[in-house]
Amino acid sequence: MEGISVQAAHVSVAMATYNGERFIAEQLRSLAAQERLPAELVICDDLSTDRTVAIIETFARTAPFPVRLYRNDMRLRFSENFMKAIRLCESRYIAFCDQDDIWHPAKIARSLDAMAATGALMCSHRVDLIDDAGAAIGQSANLSKRAILQGRTFEPWGVFLGFTCTIDRRLLQWIDPAARPRDLIEYDRPMSHDRWFYLVAGLFGSICYIDEPLASYRQHGGNVFGRTRTTMIGRVRKAVEKYPTYIAQRQRIAADTARLLASVRDGIESPDFHTAADRWSQVAAFYTARHAVFSAPSVAARLRRLYAAYRDRHYRPGWGGGGATLIVQDAIAAVLARRPAPDRR
User: Fold this and answer.
1) 50 or 242, which is more confident?
2) 159-209 pLDDT, tens per residue?
3) How many Å separate Cα 119 from the centre of its chain?
4) What CATH number does the domain located at 6-218 have?
5) Where in the chain are the domains?
6) Is-contact 72 44, C-beta < 8 A?
7) What is the DSSP letter of 340?
8) Which of 106, 76, 101, 102 shows the shortest CA–CA distance to 88?
9) Which residues share a beta bridge with 215?
């Protein structure tokens, strides 16, 4: 197609849409205004009932890059719809794109340059916060203290905002995303696409982070990222009502992740992978010990199990452990928290 920048012929943009007519036109215009244009825009629409598809089709007629639109036969929901779009992309690098934000002109260029300079398998960045009308309301916190995450600087439960992420497509090939464990937030669904690729990037290499806003993150409806405050009462209420369930879910995810990595490690030669796989075994053991604490029927039994976990060095500082702060937090929760309901799945 004439007019497509040769400079950008190696990055695809993957977008998942659903009833996004309010804001999608502005997002699409920001893609067309990129200093380094994508080779293609791949959109999977999850059976929108508004004008989303019509807006995309209008944009595609004049876009400075090919636009491939796929309409699902059935609702996939957000993360699975994103996974479908990601798999359909053809370029070496893939940038995730939501339907309601605005990309700054240098977003693609800066992300790809950072990955080229560092050899990272994923790149993320800080964002500006805007309201429904696009007015500035602040800036996100620095989501990483380090420009490069690798080895022991890689947080096993971490995740970056999906639309800030650009990945190397090799992350799709090394471990099949269909095998991913359950999600930390939506317990009944597979791990979200952004959390999964964060995990795999950390298994095989590094993630780079740009401490500069490269997109505007729209806050609307129930979306309140960067504007919430957690009170002491709120933290106590979480400990009482949700903490044991939260620990139980992490235990399941850690155990499933450790089993998955053990099942594929014989065919993988990467030293980074084997080191990370061993660490996930440590994470699984740590959360098994924590889950045992909160499965005990009485406060006294919980505290005894907590002491046993501490004695066995499960709370040692570093990757896969918790350190002094976390054992104090668990001790408080062990006294306050309700026992979780039995897992019937």
Assistant:
1) 50
2) 999 999 999 999 999 999 999 999 988 888 999 999 999 999 999 999 999
3) 20
4) 3.90.550.10
5) 6-218, 232-336
6) yes
7) P
8) 76
9) 103
